Each structure stands twice: as C-alpha cells, then as structure tokens.
Amino acid sequence: MQVAIIGAGNFGTAVANIVSGNGVPAYLWMRDPQQFDDIEKYGENRRYLSGYPLEEKVTPTLDLQLAASKSDLIFVTVPSASFREMTVELAPFVSKDTYVVSGTKGVEAPNLSLMSQILEEELPDCPIGVISGPNIAEEIAGGHFTGTVVASRDSGLCDCVQTVFASDSFRVYSSEDIYGVELGGALKNIYAIVCGIAARLEVGQNTVAMLITRSLAEMSRFAEAMGANPYTFLGLAGVGDLMVTCTSPLSRNYQLGFRIAGGRSLSEAMDELGKLAEGVNTLQVVHEKREQLGVYMPLAEALFHVLFEQGSIDEVVSALMTGEQQADVEFAKPTTWSAPN
Fold this sequence. Notes:
single chain, alpha/beta, Rossmann fold, glycerol-3-phosphate dehydrogenase [NAD(P)+] activity, 341 residues
C-alpha cells in the first residue's frame, strides 16, 4: 500500500503523519518549492503545522506524477477554491483502480458543487469518498483521541481508509451518505464564525448552547433540501464537528469571527489570520442556494449581512432570539416514536 496526500496544509500534513505512523509510506505533495525546501531542511511543516516532525515514512515531493501514479489511495486536501483545478491536474496520473478521497471541508462557487461531485466529474472511473469529522489538525498531530467519518458508496474504499488510519488514538467510522458527511464539514464553518463572534461578546454558556443547537437545525434543514440524510448530522460529521469548530480557539473560522467582533473588517481579520477560513466562501454560496431552495436559515443570513452588507453584529443575536419558534427537533419521526399517553 502506498498513499499520497495532495496538499501540504495543516490537515494534509497531519494525515500524512497518521498514515505513515501506521507503517504505510506516504507522499506529501506540495506546489511551493520554498515550502518543500523548508520541510526538507527542518523535517517538519513549519508553515502549517509547526512543532510536529514528519514521520520517517513521509516523503515530501514536488512531483505530482510520482505521487499520484505510484499510490493506491489518494487524499486531496487542497482548499475548495482550487480543488477542481487540482483534480484536473491530477487526472492524467490516476488509474481507475485508485481510491480518491476528499479531505476538504468546503464548497465550490457559484453552484455549490461539493468536492465529491467534482471528483465524480473529473475522475469518473475512480472510486471516490470523503472524510470529515471533528478533526483539528494540531490535536491530531499531538496524539489526542480523535474520530472521523469516511463516506463512500464503495465499501472497499471505506475499508481501506479505516485500515490505513485506525490507531490507538484515531478511530474511523463509515457512512454511505457522502453528501451528508460532506455538507456537515462545510456548513459548520459558517456557524463557527458566528460562535467566534459570540465568544468575543462574552455571551453566557446558555447562549452558546442555543447557538450550536439552532445551528445544527439550520444545517440539517439545508442538507435535507440538498438530498442528504438529516440523521447524518447526529454523528461525528455533524454535531461532533460543529461542536469542536464552534468552541475551539484552534478553529480558523472561530478565530475569524472573534476578530470581526473585536472591530476588524472581514479583509483585516483574514489578513491577520493568515490562513484560509473556508466558512467565508461557503457562506456566500449557501446564501445564494438557500434563496433558491427556500430554506429557513436565520443565523446564516444574519452573518451574511454582517460580513458582506455592513450589517450590525447585533443582527446575529436578533436572528437567534426573534426567529420562528417551531419544533425543537424537526426530523423526529412520529412513526418510530410517540409520546406516552
């Protein structure tokens, strides 16, 4: 077994270390020669995951053809904005038997294409899948107990990912709901920005709990309209990822919201952060799609007004406290449960 990770950001680097720590050789591909030279010199990815040496079986490379053509399993972990371009570049070097898995939590503008849909379009002969969950790269690299979800319609792909990932500190669960798992990873970034704003405003824990819970309701509502299973959001790829991203200072989207609530403009906050916050792009695309589908998402809409229409941060609180008071859990089926008499 040989694995390639396409994209040497913090998560891609953490994936490379997990795989190679299990004894599986892994290519870690990057485009930037400067980054490559620095990794070769210092033995770690100081730009994105400083302080965590690369495992012995990780091979950094600038040679995309080498990494792709020699590998049985490929993880693509580049940002969503460049995902299609990267997949097109990758295509000539990938055989039809190669498993290709997206580790990118985002969507493509303007039509809200998911990364799995891009893989299906550009690599139509390959078995494809996605991984998503509460997977903060720094914690994975530090050996903290972590779980993720691999979703695919190909059971062999799921088995393969579970084999190369599973360890004493990393658990991999499986799902067939590719779109649900993927939408969980993308949508939660929107609400992490909201929770970063709330943290800077020093709201109480009651408020945080309500924010996260109503965020989950919006996410599952939107996902069902997109053809995903809303029950997927009760697992690691939904509530698990939402919870960690909305509460951890290590989350880039949380940090973005925190800075904006401190008086920074969106561009200033992004410049200070120095790393891509996928929630900004996702919010713009979801705003358009939500209107087309007629999905009720007051928190997401309030954040859109704040980031792109010079709205007041108070709108986020207003959206939380003045929204419709309907069913608490919209997808509880009376056919499977009923209240006692």
